[in-house]
## 1
Amino acid sequence: MRGFLAVLWRDLRLALGGSGDVLTIVLFFVITGAITPFAVGPDQALLSRIAPGIVWIAAFLAMLLGLDRLFRPDQEDGTLALYRLADVPLAAVVAAKVIVHWLTAALPLIVASPLLAVLLAMDFPTFARTVVSLLLGTPALAAFGAIGAAVTVTTRRGGLLAPILIAPLCVPVLIFGVGAIAMGGGPDQAGAALLFLAALSLTALALSPFAAALAIDWGEE
Amino acid sequence: MSIETAPKISWWNRLAHPGQFVALTRPLVWPLAALTAVLFAAGLWFAFFNSPADYQMGDTVRIMYVHVPTAWLSQFVYATMAVSALGTLIWRHPMADVSMKSAAPLGAAFTAMALFTGSMWGRPTWGTFWEWDGRMTSTLVLLFIYLGIVALWRAFDDQLRAARVVAIFTLVGAVNIPIIKFSVDWWSTLHQPASVFTPEGPKMPGSILTPLFIMFFAFTFLFLVLQLVAMHTEVRRRRIATLERRMARGSAA
């Protein structure tokens, strides 16, 4: 447990100190959302209807963008090799990294989402639902992302490959994430979608550290 | 050959030697290819000349004889890959690597064919090439997963290391595919439900089922033949890479 916490603190300090990656990801998220009205037109009614989808896509892309820094810096300076030999199980190290990834690449987006809500003319109930669905869904994105990053960490072109591999696996997260917001006609399935989203996140968080650790361990030689 | 004199040689161990595998399976290729050709000839004859046109869809119903078998293979090939991935991870069986690698592009091709024939069929019957319907969407996602796996194979130089990593990803995908399918079905559905294997038996007349089953086997055997040939090619490709490396080392020394 102490090793787990040590990795968590180290990564958190590295992510927050200096490099400014967090700010870049938040900027990417806001700019992606802000650029959509230029593509679909400034019609308020249309924008407020598709706003939850835009916010989800922006968050999804921003998190994929941040994947490469999950394991690659540690792979390049040899820290990952030390983790493999450490007493702490590699899966625990990966779990700590997933948590840090969520704290530094998902939580700031949720904090910044009111900005997009204003820009995209969301009303308050929709916005509240969006925040809840992002809070429940982004852990699954972080967990799937860890598998993609782990699988590609030893390849040279991994940075581009991980999002390609992970995007299809994230389809259910997007479906339930946006489904939990939808307030349109028909029976209200938002509650069921929210439960599915939470189930996905919990399952992915529980299983992905082991798969990612296995991929790191066997991908090295 | 030392492998002949080693103790306890089962056919399983013998298959683990790439040379032995090729030697054992090469005689199978031509008979299987001939069987595939016969099945295709019979199936196409039935499909074109000896099956009725649908009373609603007309002659376009004949697209089904290509569409349904390729759609079935798109899932069967992934199952083959997942079983091979288990072979790689659990037994470190060398031929499981090769089988996994050669199945990926085949699966992608069959999936693309199922999508293509599906949209050709959708245009006259549903009035649209593409609809965001549950089954179509999950097949499209499956195609993306296949293509991702092919890209992952190509990203590695060392194929033995690649095999283990791809195996893990293939299994992660195998766990995810049912979830994707379920979520997409929950999201939207227009495609007709399963109508061949149902608890009450097939919901189609025999005149359509006969060509469908023949084509079903024809495509499955086509996959077997292509898979064997692709595996032989992969074994040869690795042999060439090894020889080149040995030659480079020899000339450097």
## 2
Amino acid sequence: MNKFIKWGLLVLALGLLGAGWWLGLAWAPPDREMGDVQRIMYVHVPLQWMAMLAMFINFVAAVAYLFKASWKLDSAAEASAEIGLVLGTAGMITGAIWGRPTWGVYWSWDPRLTSEAIMLVTYTGYLVLRRFVEDPEKRATWSAVVAIIGAINLPIVWFSVRWWRSLHQVQSSPRTVDPEMVLPLRVSAFGMLFITLFFMAVRYRQALAERQAEVALPDALPGDVPMSASHNPSKVA
Amino acid sequence: MTPVARNRIIALGALLVAGAGLAFVAFGDIGENLVYYWSPSEMLRQGDKAYTATIRLGGVVQPGSIQWNAEHTTLHFRVADGVQEGAASVLVRSTETPPQMFRDKIGVVVEGTYDKSGVFSSNRLMVNHSNEYRAPKEGEDPNKWRETLSDATTASTGTGAK
């Protein structure tokens, strides 16, 4: 990867996150009902948005893989599912931290929280399946099927607060949020987007190197095995 | 069949299954079985079925109904369908410290049991927030909710500062 793009992306991401969180913590007003607790919004909301985005990329990559098989698409699917799961888990933890002082509870089995939990379990299952299947082609095909079916979680999570009664409020919009709060949220969301893309690029390259090492001819090994594949003894032997 | 054709058929099959699953969730009326809470009027309509089972009741805190007994540390208030006068409501007793945003007219969900005496004994009191985020109005101190906790009888919407 182009070093300029790679490090530029990271610097841009950290810069925007730093600026967005500074604006959110020091510049934006507190919420008139929640007070300073509301400031966790600038972390929780970007995390959940980017988790959704990463999982959507996973869906697109899975569909594309089945239509036109390529290790690049399979690697993109793996990278995006992992990053989506990490972001979604962090989003759920920050949500629980926000829930305790505002709702009074860390957790309740309301439709939004329940569907989010099912979504995280689904993507955990997806990643577990990938590690269980040895044959790269079978792994890519089977996991693509799980990814496509698992993607129905995304609209369910998104619309859960509109379809059913829940403790979690419905989506806010710039009309329901004061402009001084929208700005820090936007800046942090873009920061989170760029850090997501950075993680995705790094993880994608690792996954692709692993795939290529797995499918490489045995006689091409072990001399040019990339480091990332050396933990797979069956292929090195 | 070539592997490419096979994969495409698998993709279409998976998309079909996913679409059908989503349609079922979205339009299949499973909301009937997914009721997170009953409103006061819905609960009262259940009659005997509402008694003794652990249920959730959701609505808004009826204005002026909050009574805090400091001696017995019990909190009484009425949960109503809405803020308008004459909305169906249920008396709730809670022994918990309410969350800091608890006040008149705020949305609440209580978990507990309803009995024949007409009192809902809550063992979990949750407050829900709307999707609105606003800066404090002139002269308002948003952190004062914490102080009003100890004096829940006078907790109001905070317009007294003007």
